[in-house]
């Protein structure tokens, strides 16, 4: 983390009256970045209408409706784009199940939804030869379908399958757009810039702890991760979106997160489960109307004009002038009261001096957290951010002491983290470092064991050299790995229970870390064959429940039981980038809670300090995760928040036990746990 100090760098100093009798004062919290200088690039806009959507079904359905209403322009910037992805899915039939991205954008460009008048469509997508090949974020781009590649060698080729038809659709869609066959539809791509990334990283203190492999990953696999849409910016009814959701088919899901929902599609339509694949997905979108749309459009326009215009389908540059202090009148013409304030934040290594306003906001906002800090993020991998939170809590408590108030007067901060199992084994170390700071290191027991073992061996050699009469006879130990050194620098092994008690005693903080899992309520049918096999083994003459195990005996039975129990649960992949604090502010968008999103990839978030919107979002999200049981009520009341926290904690731990036994959970929440370990660290 770069040396950002919210109290010095982002907060306005103010003077308020102090009550002589109580020694207390009352002031208002500054949730936005508002200081002169760098923050002038990211002004606060007070006249907006914001609507928040949970998961792909809600979000993409509204996007499809807005595309059909477009009259002038549609500007999209994406991390990935799958033309065959269906935005609406009413049936579980084979592809296509509804309106696809490709058909909607082409239909708009051809004027099908606008009385024959073409709508100008511009699509900007991240594409890097190495990175894109690994993640397939533009399926069909620069490739021919497998069916078409094999057909020339066949005298009587078979009819294309659903998979073939989908691949052909993508390949032809990209081919025609790149060739400029659709005058009103343009495509540009952009890749990462090595020099810009390196310049941005040099200002990060966290850079010092990077291993060689991780550093190379940052330098050469940087992405453009922003996801926004702007519709009819110059029109009478302009609107737009700031998204966490990607425009590839994996990201469509409902808030119900069914164990197996055919509408999510076949495994071959997206990534596979290990990538992760067409499993349940959790993420968000924010629809925006009003002044803040100017900042979203400015971000798109500058990126579009900077991207290389290769080929006939690249279109022309966009001529737009932006004055963020005096936004066009049409942006607020149709707003409905009440209005919400909002701010656009970015990570942009390519700008002059680079922009890191997302990083600054994450540091800044937590300084005001008093009752709850809710983080739901795909990557919870920034231990320095948690350390900064604790530093700020210590600063806050020092203020109480100056006011002659005791710890009993300090409101407890409930830190609630919802994050998925790291998608790659190499992401375990940074996740472990971060959850350890909150007193949950034992949730990743084998990583802790591996690192502590390395440190113990290192210290044993050092001790032997100290005790030896001739230290030169004992070779010095191998230097600690960057992972072990970081762990040691952070204080080494910690007892979780003691660490959490210290959090509460020293910082007035409580913490929990959970994941989201869904359950196969139809397991008796889906596991019929396995259950029959298990029953047969148990009825065999060789079965002895008291046996320590032998070939064909109890060990095989236990293994099969464990496999069946495990198969009844499926992880809900959390792609979210959400933070909500005290029913007072929220931020969401494309940025994860890691160094990559704070300094390497281009990102864009929206933040708002509207209490009604923040409270409604918190109630919906917490209600979704707890099956409507523990949505939080008046979460800024300490007694209510304590009760909610206790119920979340109990549900998460109970469900972890249920998961191990193959029993039905009470809700999606399951205590975070990962048995993997890695000596390679990737962020």
From TrEMBL:
Catalytic activity from the UniProt record: a 1,2-diacyl-sn-glycero-3-phosphocholine + H2O = a 1,2-diacyl-sn-glycero-3-phosphate + choline + H(+)
Entry keyword set: Hydrolase, Lipid metabolism, Repeat
Name under which the protein is recorded: Phosphatidylserine/phosphatidylglycerophosphate/ cardiolipin synthase-like enzyme
Keyword Hydrolase recorded: yes
Keyword Repeat on entry: yes
Domain PLD phosphodiesterase: 570-597
GO molecular function: phospholipase D activity
Species assigned in the record: Variovorax boronicumulans
